[in-house]
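Z., the sequence and structure:
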Amino acid sequence: MGYALTRAAIKAGHKVTLITAPSSLRPPKNATVIDVVTSGEMFKAVKANFAKCDCLIMAAAVSDYQPAAISKTKIKKEQTVLSLDLKPTKDILKWAGRNKKRGQMIVGFALEDTDILKNAEAKLKKKKLDMIIANEPAAIGANKSTVHIKITSGDWQTLKNIPKTTLAKRVIGILEAAIPQLKLFVSVSPYR
């Protein structure tokens, strides 16, 4: 989705910075690309570039947790049960919502398996977003999906079985109506 948004924004004539994890997808031409692997690297890249953007679109499915400790050597297989302690990752969307110094628009995605609209709207408010795009787990890796879009002051719009490229154009159009002169900043999920 992040790559589709990047392509749609470039096609509409906007300057785009794409923060991306390793991917089999080819980054769109004319995008400034920042490669990251971890959620921590993504957070640093967002912080370093946030003040320069008019709109942050977080299409990334950033992991909510990471290992509390990382072994520098191989962990040998034993006959005992291995426990893995996790700690929360930095909440990039929440950080951005609190730091809208120049009134940037912030767009988030919500992948929900229950109470889709209720949970997505709670995320919209809690993280101080301007737009939320909600979908179900079936959207992962699919070319088409049903999505629900809400702007802070508007009603829900449901788009059924829509291709990602069409959704990307629609999102860019909504943002253009809100901010005539956009520099877009799109992020894509890191592996860890």
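The chain has a mean pLDDT of 90. The two ends are 18 Å apart (CA to CA).

Let me know what you think.
H.
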